Amino acid sequence: MLGGATLPFVVHASPQQPQPNQQPTHGLSSLDGGVQGFLQRQQSSLANVTIDGQPAGQIIESMAAYYNIEARILVALLETTSQLISNPSLPTTATNQPFLAGPQGFLSQIDWAAREIRVGLGPYDSAVILNFSDGSQQKLDPKDDPHALTVKRFLAFERDQATWQQLVNRYSKVYHELFQNEPVVAPSTPPVSTGFLSIPWEQGARMVHSSHFDHTYPMVDSGGDGNDVMINYQGKSGLSYNSHDGHDYYFPDLPYGTPIVAAAPGWAYARTTRGLGVLIQHAGATAGYETVYWHLDDFAPSFKNYIDDSKPKWVERGELLGWSGATGFTDGAPHLHFEVRHNGKQVDPYGWYGPGSDPCTNYVKCEASVWLWNDSVPWSRPDGPAPTDTTPPSALLTINPDADLALVAQFENNPLPSVGPMAASDQISYASGKFGQAVKVGDGSLTYPASPTLKLEHGTLALWVNVPETWPSSSTGRHYLLAASQNPVDPDKIYRNTLALRHEQTEQAKWTFWTVDANGQEHSLSVPDRLSAGWHHFAISWNQATGNKRLLIDGMLVSEASKVALPIEVGDDLNLGRWTIGAGISNLALDELLIYKRQLAADEIYRLAISEQALVASSVSTDQRDLQILTPALDNGGGVVKAQLGINGIYAAPMTYYRAYRWTLPNTEGSYTISVRLTDRMGNTSTLSQTIMIDHPPQASVTIRNLNALSATLVLSATDANQPLSMALSAYPNPTRKQWEPFNPEREWQWNPITARRVYVWFRDANGNERGPIVTGPDLFRAYLPRVER
């Protein structure tokens, strides 16, 4: 129910009978001819609005297609909030914020609304809480129809509850008046029994499968999916990337310009919103299926008269659609984003071969996937469903890490970071390391998100490298330890916004900390390579404000420069062991990657380089009750789905798995064992535990007796479980150095003749926890006023 009336837009259409080569009509008559045609038939003044040369109706239709939602919802919302459909004479400002909430600008408004409608479809594990601008709240039943929930949720943004209720009531009437109760749920067809898709690029092109479809809520390219789990079609995790609703293919031999072709025949729409892309609606026996080809560099010439047009073009299997590129919502290497939908829902063309049922069926915009590739593709269908999963998740537990740490990865048989975002990896191996195990990238790939891991205003990156006796052959003579670039594939070879550390084997072997700023100005900080084979510590640091960059090897500063123009963006990925996916390999063993949010001092890096033990990221004690608990986990049998937190063996109720939690300890000093129990989809569990000590600063007070103009007796009180205690006194609130002395309940104090009669006192327990300063003295509250002559 919406506003007390039956929701008109949740009616399901009758099953569709496939017709060979029949031009699609959306199955819903009012939008035949697209949104722009509908606006024209309504004689809406919005039909005459163009944004950057693109008609408003085409923007609505393109955004709806991009986010895979029904355009009718957007049209009905525009009429509900600002009468944008029925008003024959719009003021010039009406399209700037038609939803009366959210960002400014028509294009940004439609993008925002479409994304929020998609997100709002759920799923929801508990009541949906709407928070209104007047401070009130409204609970929605999570079992309500998802389309009702998402509309109600959207209309609540930046509104009070009374206005929201009026709009909810109005929406139901508007939808009926505009669309006569036509269904928002597309006509359905059964899944195919035989694969029908060919490879969507030119035969013979070398391809790297860089990102996979996420079976735990394939959202869209932007926006979170409400979980920290990514599972591919084989039930494996630890791949790129969470919430992805398709597959990304990178072409290393021709990143820009690899021909992209139709994977099957159908009616093709060329779109320019959110980059250049083609959506094909298939017909005949495959009616109900759509394939999407995004981030194109350009369209094929045959689309000249069809770009952003509501009329589609028929294409045959293998027909040229355009060329690979990096347009739209992408940051980094050019690639093809390939996506498949069925009955308006996301599906994975690789099917589902993980344990149990496809988790994608838990989401309203996703259905169980089946194998859709035909026999011509150069990869094979898995032999069958995955065997029963009996392996528990691999996980780490970190409590209260140093706030300066952005990433800690120590590669103990997996790429899990104990601090920081999850890695995406493929075909990596492990060898003996500096501390335990080390990772070798080899022919595979290992990337961590560059943002927010690399803080480009200032930061430090350190890692151990096993320098080889001889380096692999390379056409460029360069071998990368790490690299992050906004333009890793640049036809002009400028590589704007890049940060990398590499070994160069040219006329003279050298190590280089290489950066390129946003304007293409490059800078190389280089030193000759005089290192012996074996483990060596490398660190690079930077400061945007001063233009300072440093290269340190084995704890020693070997090169430094200032006033260097540094990058302001470095793309999506921090690549280890290579320049970018598909590029030449260094085949190095790497250990303990540390990234800090500040530029470390030289002595701090030296201590890292001479340490005989790996960094321990967890705190062993705290003076605060609130804990930050990090629980990164990998599971190759369907993903971690549930977590339980415990204190001293007593566990709380299960909750949805996330990589981080906040937990509050009792307000009592002592030792506490923190446990985390993780459960995967098949019921396998892993339990991790760590002990942390709550150690409060001393409880203390200071009073005065025997006060006179020159001195006073201080009466001090301090209690703490960790003895002995010490104290420090000063006439100044911020002394250069505190002079610590054993705690004494009485202390004679001489007033400083050149300062106010105040004394500042600090107390410290045996573990180094400080309390203070506590200030006292006869001049504590004295105010000095200007003298007034009368």
Describe this structure as you would to a colleague.
Helices cover 11% and strands 33% of the residues. The protein is mainly beta and 790 residues long. The chain folds into five domains: 8-179, no CATH class; 208-362, Glucose Permease (Domain IIA) (Distorted Sandwich), CATH 2.70.70.10; 401-610, Jelly Rolls; 621-694, Immunoglobulins (Immunoglobulin-like, Sandwich); 699-776, Immunoglobulin-like (Sandwich). Strands 5, 6, 7, 8, 9, 10, 11, 12, 13 and 14 form a ten-stranded antiparallel sheet that branches. Strands 17, 18, 20, 21, 23, 28, 29, 30 and 32 form a nine-stranded antiparallel sheet that branches. It has a seven-stranded antiparallel sheet with strand order 19-22-31-24-25-26-27. Strand 25 and strand 26 (509-516) form a beta hairpin. Helix 1 (34-41) crosses helix 2 (56-67), helix 2 (56-67) packs parallel to helix 4 (106-119) and helix 3 crosses helix 6. Mean pLDDT is 88; it is low at 1-18, 25-29 and 221-225.
Summed up:
The chain has 790 residues and is mostly beta strands. The chain is built from 8 helices and 48 strands.
Question: How would you classify the helix and strand content by structural class?
Answer: mainly beta
Shape: globular
Overall mean pLDDT score?
88
Compute the separation of the termini in Å. Answer: 79 Å
Q: What integer value in Å does the Rg equal?
A: 31 Å
CATH hierarchy, class of the largest domain: Mainly Beta
GO molecular function: metalloendopeptidase activity
Pfam families: Laminin_G_3, Peptidase_M23
Region (Disordered): 12-33
Domain M23ase beta-sheet core: 244-349
